[in-house]
Design a protein that fits this description.
The chain has 328 residues and is mainly β. It folds into two domains: 1-64 and 288-299 and 310-328, no CATH class; 66-286, Porin (Beta Barrel), CATH 2.40.160.20. The chain has helices at residues 2-12, 90-94; strands at residues 33-35, 47-49, 65-66, 78-88, 100-108, 118-133, 137-140, 148-168, 173-194, 204-227, 230-241, 244-255, 260-268, 271-282, 284-285, 300-303, 306-309, 319-322. The strands form five sheets. Strands 4-5-6-8-9-10-11-14 form an eight-stranded antiparallel barrel. Strands 16-17-18 form a three-stranded antiparallel sheet, with no helix packed on it. Strands 1-2 form a two-stranded antiparallel sheet.
């Protein structure tokens, strides 16, 4: 778990940039500062600028992180969570492996191309899924009164992958494909439960088998950006795992002598498909803004003895500086 936290944290920090100078801008023209405009005749005194208003921007010394950013959804780093349904294919299904459900958490760095209609993202994900149980077997618990209980096997699946995603589309609807590869973790745990409340007895679950193998796969999906900083995400995934000697819970039998299950093994290459639905959140420094407003530009216009200055997006009212009359 600590590794996953560090892994996702490092991804979210990729390509973070320092605050743009425009974010710290409060008043473009302060008292006792002088500026010379190109339309002032040669030899005239510089205009003394007096600031009469300020830009309505949040002032801060240090950047802070906003969990959900309203910035352009095609360019920012993302954090996602999905719920998914997995079903085994071919010999994996024929071996007795049952469908399962689970969830994943993923993180992607900023768009490496930074265009609104096309993007490439690099990221990673972690997955946990529960792939079905064996039939429950009635047993006698090792308690003073030999209370009744039951035991069963639970099949578990975990994944840790890196992803490369290509995204296409204009507007709020994006289509994408992703290639991924990483580690696939299979395990089986045996649970023992009491069928009634027994003083001093606690239900337990212990791992009885585990295996790790390499895997790779392909994803196809779409996402819809329905509110600032949040997208609804739907995708289908294909997973293929290297061959391994896989235990399955459906064909394993309980041994009353050892009080354990005799596991049934099959050597095969597990393949499965999954359907995922979830949300992607744009994660960004809250002092960053869209590329359209990152660099403020000012266009001075002269009106009688005042100069009006344009204000960048997000500002309040235009600045005005007093221009002294010049006698020809």
């Amino acid at each position: 778990m600590t590794f996953l936290i560090l892994f996702f944290s490092s991804l979210l920090n990729i390509n973070n940039v320092a605050l743009n100078n425009a974010d710290k801008f409060n008043c473009a023209f302060e008292k006792n500062k002088y500026f010379i405009f190109s339309n002032i005749q040669s030899g005239q005194e510089p205009i003394k600028a007096t600031c009469n208003s300020t830009i309505n921007k949040k002032e801060t010394d240090e950047p802070s992180t906003s969990f959900i950013s309203g910035n352009s959804h095609y360019d920012c780093p993302t954090l996602g969570i999905h719920f998914h349904y997995l079903t085994p294919l071919n010999e994996y299904a024929n071996s007795g492996q049952m469908p399962g459900m689970g969830f994943d958490v993923e993180a992607y760095a900023r768009n490496l191309i930074s265009t609104s209609n096309f993007g490439f993202f690099f990221g990673g994900s972690g997955t946990i899924a529960w792939m079905g149980k064996s039939a429950k077997t009635n047993i006698i618990l090792n308690t003073p009164k030999s209370d009744p209980g039951r035991t069963y096997l639970q099949s578990n699946l975990g994944e840790l992958n890196v992803h490369g995603k290509i995204e296409m589309g204009s507007g709020d609807l994006k289509f994408y494909t992703s290639l991924f590869g990483g580690l696939n973790f299979h395990s089986i745990s045996q649970s023992i439960e009491s069928t009634k409340t027994v003083s001093g007895f606690e239900n337990s679950s212990n791992n009885v088998w585990s295996k790790v193998a390499w895997q790779y796969g392909l994803e196809l999906g779409l996402r819809y950006h329905f509110t600032p900083g949040v997208s609804l995400d739907l995708r289908g995934s294909y997973h293929e795992v290297d061959p391994l000697n896989l235990a399955n819970v459906k064909e394993s039998t309980y041994n009353t002598t050892s009080a354990k299950y005799d596991l049934n093994y099959n050597t095969l290459s597990p393949r499965n498909i999954s359907i995922k639905i979830g949300f992607l959140f744009c994660i960004e420094n809250e002092n960053c803004s869209n590329s359209q407003s990152m660099e403020p530009t000012y266009t001075p216009t002269r009106s009688r003895n005042r100069v009006n200055l344009g204000v960048p997006q997000g500002g309040s009212t235009p600045h005005q500086i007093k221009v002294p009359k010049v006698n020809n």
